[in-house]
């Protein structure tokens, strides 16, 4: 479903990054030189020749903040790529909540402070942090690739959870009704949303029948003309299943037998852009291009951690 890039002909440099936790707090240091200067981050650095990655992680924690790691757990491996460089920085990301000793600020990292996790200084941290941090907190192993144009501009990202392959699939259906440049919405649906909820496809039911059943159920429309546009895979990081949603669009400007009750309103698509669209701003506009596509979203609560769009041509 998700393709992970291969980096043939790239060299690799190994880095570590350890995030230290105590109850609902995280220890962060302000980096004063080198890579990530001016950013709050966990502790880590380059793996030396003849050193294991685990040993490097422990050494860097000691050098940068004075603490001795008692135990830690590797949660993620991230390939950082910079446009124009043929070297991948392979970051090994550790979770640690068992340590001893006193915090000692270093030339490289000062100040060092405990932050409430929910108050992490996201604006002065690496941009990628927010995309993989939920997996660290929930200890969900992952592999990721982030492609940077420069330190502040990320142009591509891929995150793959190691347990994704074992997740079960559930097929759901959703039908969007459009007319010219308008989308039909039930009056009961919240201001910020434009889609009715998905319906699960019943055992033995064809997708098309499920779409027709959906239309009758949600819009009271009977028509033969449903067109399948998108297959969207939604993965919530901590759920054991992936929702595969088959999106159909019905253009009722062409339909003769569609009748509507007063429970519905039309919304101009061009006015929807500024609002929260499902699950990101690009989604509905892509759907309305009426060209088939596949999409994948990795989600934690309401945050999209990774999104991919592929058209089927
Ligand atoms: N995009 C990114 N997101 C992130 O969260 N951490 C990153 C990052 N890119 C680099 N880092 C971390 C990994 C590592 O802990 C540190 C950079 O390692 P460096 O080797 O450049 O730093 P140091 O100068 O500390 O190395 P040493 O000289 O070995 O101590 O910054």
Distance between the termini: 16 Å
**Overall morphology:** elongated
Strand content: 35-45%
Total helices: the number is 4
Uncertain spans? none
Helicity level, as a percent range?
10-25%
Query: Could you give the count of β-strands?
Result: 16
Major sheet:
8 strands, mixed
The average pLDDT is 91
Which structural class matches the secondary elements?
A: mainly beta
Radius of gyration: 24 Å
Ions, cofactors and other ligands present here are:
ligand 6U4
Order of helices and strands: EEEHEEEHEEEEEHEEEHEE
Catalytic activity: 8-oxo-dATP + H2O = 8-oxo-dAMP + diphosphate + H(+); O(6)-methyl-dGTP + H2O = O(6)-methyl-dGMP + diphosphate + H(+); 8-oxo-dGTP + H2O = 8-oxo-dGMP + diphosphate + H(+); 2-oxo-dATP + H2O = 2-oxo-dAMP + diphosphate + H(+)
Cofactor: Mg(2+)
Subunit structure: Monomer.
Protein name: Oxidized purine nucleoside triphosphate hydrolase
